[in-house]
Amino acid sequence: MEITRTTRTTNTFTRTLGRSGIEVSALGFGCWAIGGEWQSADGQPLGWGRVDDEESVRAVRRALDLGVTFFDTADVYGCGHSERLLGRALGKRRDEVVVATKWGNLFDERTRTADGQDATPEHARRALTASLARLGTDHVDLYQLHIADARPADAAELRDACETFVAEGLVRAYAWSTDDPARAAVFAEGEHCTAVQHALNVLQDAPAMLALCEELDLASIDRSPLAMGLLTGGHHARRAPLEAGDIRSRPPAWLPGFGDGSGAAPEWLARVEALREVLTSGGRTLAQGALAWLWARSPRTVPIPGFRSVAQAEENASALAKGPLTAAQSAEVDRILGR
Ligand SMILES: NC(=O)c1ccc[n+]([C@@H]2O[C@H](COP(=O)([O-])OP(=O)(O)OC[C@H]3O[C@@H](n4cnc5c(N)ncnc54)[C@H](OP(=O)(O)O)[C@@H]3O)[C@@H](O)[C@H]2O)c1
């Protein structure tokens, strides 16, 4: 007799993406790192070093089995590779999940080089068509503008273009990936704008953006929820040398916590160590505690940690079952950080 074993579990911890009513697991999976190596025209590494595509596919499928129903990628991650890989990993299970991707950057898939940005509606249409083909789908659930500092006047036109995409059934809802609340508010004037993607983790709070999300009924999709690995106790958190193809080995100005590229900055590591006890309470790992802090921060947060292995996927997805920190634990975090 054949014995079949199912590893699929049902996680009940979900969140709603703002005014869209779209329900997602309270944890999304960020697909930047699994795009593999790519760079800017002047040689700045923009990926996270080498990755094993087969391991990435296994990690996505493991996440599905553990109840993760939200995946965030971008056309430019790995210059198309992340979208292709996510589409392959999801396969027939595409309709079980909410897929978010981004547009606005120009790149060459063949040379894996990113080169410039284009904030015109014409480019948005071209980029959407290409993303749909790479993902192997007929619609994007959440389409996000990936030019954080785009001019508000350009963004208003792009917002209108997104409304057209929604009317055509190509997109269900849209968002701006920006850390500027004033810009997020411009996009939020569109009926189907439902979220903002922005930096948020226990070391980098964003009270003004969270207040805007509350005011305008937007989801807060939290990028870099593990402070790009600093909040995991991983190898880079012990100041180990980083691979040359890893963006953290040559951190651009917007990437804090990695100093001159020789590893994690000591002052950031000191803050992580100060938080270790409270974040690891309740049997959580450090990474799970960092995610639990985000859920406690606001009912609108949806962290999207990156991953490169089945082990990381399992650890991060398992945080769902443990839920948010308590109010007392969150208050302890604030006390330790002097907030
Ligand atoms: N819109 C934007 O401009 C923007 C910018 C940044 C990020 N994002 C999105 O946000 C997602 C997440 O942010 P992020 O990639 O900046 O970083 P993150 O989620 O803060 O950190 C992810 C990294 O931490 C390590 N890690 C993850 N889980 C771990 C675990 N359980 N144990 C040990 N190490 C673990 C992995 O790196 P190692 O394998 O090297 O250890 C992983 O790549 C991205 O994938 C992307 O979807 C968007």
List the helices and strands and how they pair.
Layout: E1 14-17, E2 22-25, E3 29-30, E4 39-40, H1 53-65, E5 70-72, H2 81-90, E6 98-103, E7 105-108, E8 113-117, H3 121-135, E9 140-145, H4 152-167, E10 171-177, H5 181-188, E11 193-199, H6 207-216, E12 219-223, H7 266-279, H8 286-297, E13 301-303, H9 310-317, H10 319-322, H11 327-337
Parallel strand pairs: 3-5, 4-8, 5-6, 6-9, 9-10, 10-11, 11-12, 12-13
Antiparallel strand pairs: 1-2, 7-8
Helix pairs in contact: 1-2, 1-9, 5-6, 7-11
EC number: 1.1.1.-
Enzyme class: oxidoreductase
Protein name: Aldo/keto reductase
In short:
With 339 residues, the protein is α/β, with parallel strands linked by helices. It contains eleven helices and 13 strands.
CATH first level: Alpha Beta
Tell how many strands the DSSP assignment holds. 13
Mean pLDDT: 94
- Give the strand order of the largest sheet, numbering strands 1, 2, ... along the chain: 3-5-6-9-10-11-12-13
Bound molecules: NADP nicotinamide-adenine-dinucleotide phosphate
Q: By CATH's scheme, which homologous superfamily applies?
A: NADP-dependent oxidoreductase domain
Helix-strand pattern, N to C?
A: EEEEHEHEEEHEHEHEHEHHEHHH
Shape: globular
Low-confidence stretches: 1-8
Largest sheet: 8 strands, parallel
Our count of helices gives: 11
Number of domains: 1
Distance between the termini: 61 Å
Backbone structural class: alpha/beta
CATH fold category name? TIM Barrel
Portion in strands = 15-25%
CATH architectural type: Alpha-Beta Barrel
Rg over CA atoms? 19 Å
How much helix, percentage-wise, in residues? 25-40%
